[in-house]
Amino acid sequence: MPELTEEMVTDALKDVIDPELGYNIVDLGLIYGITIQNGQVDVVMTMTTPGCPASNYIQEGTQNRLLDIDGVKDAHVTVVWSPAWDPAMMSDDAKRYFGLA
């Protein structure tokens, strides 16, 4: 089994789609940090707005996707509101998709 890397986790999290925007949470810039230690993956993320009606869905989807990665023994997702999300945090691909680039 290959060693878990941040790239592996990031690639897997691209499968998690924000249902309101129809785009993945990584390219939207919602992932603020990934920590990997002994099979434990901790993700710090945000939502596009504090009142995001899909926040539970996205958080659970993130948790479930992490647990599906080979080698992940446990996963924890923490949602933070600081710094506040801004469209400038999106990847160039996402900005083009939404007509912002």
From TrEMBL:
What this protein is called in its record is Aromatic ring hydroxylase
Q: Which organism is it from?
A: Sulfobacillus thermotolerans
**Where in this chain does the record put each MIP18 family-like domain?**
6-79
- Print the organism lineage: Bacteria, Bacillati, Bacillota, Clostridia, Eubacteriales
What is one Pfam family matched by this protein? FeS_assembly_P
Query: What SUPFAM superfamilies does the record tag this protein with?
Result: Fe-S cluster assembly (FSCA) domain-like
Which sequence ranges form a coiled-coil region, renumbered to this chain? none
